[in-house]
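tool_call: predict_structure(chain=1)
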Amino acid sequence: MTHSAGSPAPPILVVEDVHKSFGGVRAVAGASFALQRGAITALIGPNGAGKTTLFDLITGFAAPDAGAIRFEGKPIEGLPPHSVTRRGLVRTFQLTRVFAAMTVLDNMMLAGRGQPGEGLLQLIARRTAGQRVEGEVRERALAALHRFDLDGKAGDYAGTLSGGQRKLLELARALMTDPTLVLLDEPMAGVNRVLGSRLLDDVEELRRTAGMTFLFVEHDMDIVMRRADHVIVMAEGAVIAEGSPDAIRADPRVIDAYLGQARSRT
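tool_result:
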């Protein structure tokens, strides 16, 4: 699809009136927004607002009850996670998901595109081609680990990494799928400030050098205000506000959503 010079590029992701309930509890209740291509967008909201559930719906880990989700102009709602990933949309998790009993390098190579299969005929008939592809995947994996200063840990078991290093590994592994859009679920959770800042620096560099788009969930408002181009606010399963960080900081609907939750705890 083309667009005329000077006109804005179409959004990379559109979420339109999406609903999801679990056992009668509405987790997402008519959420709608669009992501600008090449932007770093923060998704914020009080606990229970539906942010992680919305990530699950976008990336295929759950299917919406109603509504539409379009990535690069094509519907993806209800597709399984591997199909969504193949289209260039990948996510990380609040609780990192690494294979602890495998090496860091093997964790990376599992995510590489174009891996040769393990079928007997392929091993015999395509052994040379398979070895070449595996070598290329290994080189890409080592380069990605180097970007995140994890190349010295390539031979270590992933289970020996610190929480912050696991977050970096998960982001590095996501890059092995050649994504255009990356969803980060609380990338700073359980990470010390130094490694967390490094991760966010890498996000900004990837946006600048590779044109990647990022959507991240974060509770630290200082990080949101300093790192995000655009902020989307959810409460009770719906989007209640969006705009620049400065506009969101002063929005009474946002203040009320957070203060309302604080009052409920007292």
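agent: The chain has two domains: 13-97+179-265, 99-160. Proceeding to next step.
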